[in-house]
Amino acid sequence: MKNSNYFSGSLKDVDLEVADAITKERNRQCNQIELIASENFVSNAVLAAQGSVFTNKTVEGYPGKRYYGGTEFADKVESLAIERACRLFNCTYANVQPHSGSNANQAVYLALLEQGDTILSMDIASGGHISHGHPATLTGRDYRIVPYGVSRDTGTIDYANVEALAVQHKPKMIIAGGSAYPRTIDFERIRTIADKVGAYFLADIAHIAGLVVTGLHPNPFPHAHVVTTTTYKSLRGARGGMVLADDKTLGKKINSAVFPGVQGSVLLHGVAAKAVCLGEALQSEFKQYNQAVLDNAQTLAKTLLDAGVGLVSGGTDTGMLLVDLTTKGLTGDIAVDSLERAGLTCNKNLIPFDSQPAKIASGLRLSTNAGTTRGFGEKEFQQIGHWISQVLDKLVENKDSNQSTEKRVREQVAQVCDQFPFYSE
């Protein structure tokens, strides 16, 4: 039976409830200031690829070696993404199929480790990622996790402690990188430690990939055996993950671990969108963007510190900042809710040596990635720092009544947002 509306009907015609939710989400993004480090705004080109007819196509395997027919253009777009990833990161192997950064990490573990092997990775409260060994994950269940942390005095990685733990526990893999570590990572030193104990070195650069490919943060290659990353955050592209290496023998193992090891068919619309964002990252404007991210982060950090807001490690070398709320006697759950009511969206986060559980936390994680994409400069981030400190100071005075400050800041936020419009219908 012919259904003329199936191909021609708009989303509003077909599903008003979902259409309404999308419209309201777009308005929320446009009318609030996004400070969440794991978020960014993609280009219209990435949106178009993500919503393309590649969503209709099922493929398994890799370009030239598929289990389905009709793969000519699927192979082309995946090959483009692979080639662009290798150019960006100066490596010889890339797998662009992982649905997420966690999937990418899981594939590396499956490829290179046996169940029960020891992994030395950063403690969650020190900035590590849950996929590196949190007890609630498959990684934490299937492997023996030995955590390393940061210095209580500096808030930065204690490399001497990393080496001592490696010598003591003889891990099969050492992981560097995480979700809330704002400082430069010494990849060369970690590789030296890994070589000393015969371990693989995995660098997870999900939050700093944009800085790495533009030369604003040291490249984990040639030091890391394997690198994983997401393609959003500082790469400001489609949601998903990648695995990178400079050793094609390792690459063959990783390919088998991704498919059929940890996932099935390829999300081709996601791969197409990854190809677009990787192409964007190869343009000269992308380095200008990432330099602005760093400049804005320094301005935000200085503004907060000058206002008496504590920062873990005293600042940042990246686009991420970790606020220490213990200097204000506040907790993250209360602060994040108040800031959102004021139009400033961020997330609560554990800080090193946190006395609070994760659902409460003693910190806030902030990022300049999304705001910089929107066009904010140092002037805007200085104002954002003032707004954050004003909301926090009012909470210190009275945790139960912050409505007047929230309302005033929200109105000022809306005025700034109006000056930087995007995603118009």
Which terms summarize this structure?
single chain, 425 residues, alpha/beta, Aspartate Aminotransferase, domain 2, Aspartate Aminotransferase, domain 1, seven-stranded mixed β-sheet, four-stranded antiparallel β-sheet, 47% helix, globular
Structure overview:
By secondary structure, the protein is of the alpha/beta class. The protein has 17 helices and 15 strands. The chain has helices at 4-8, 11-14, 16-31, 44-50, 72-89, 101-112, 138-142, 159-169, 187-197, 209-213, 248-262, 268-281, 284-306, 332-341, 369-374, 378-397, 403-418; strands at residues 33-34, 61-62, 65-66, 93-95, 118-122, 144-148, 173-176, 200-204, 226-230, 241-245, 310-311, 320-324, 344-345, 347-349, 363-367. The strands form four sheets. Strands 4-10-9-8-7-5-6 form a seven-stranded mixed beta sheet, sandwiched between helices. A four-stranded antiparallel beta sheet has the order 11-12-15-14. A two-stranded parallel sheet has the order 1-13. The two termini are 34 Å apart.
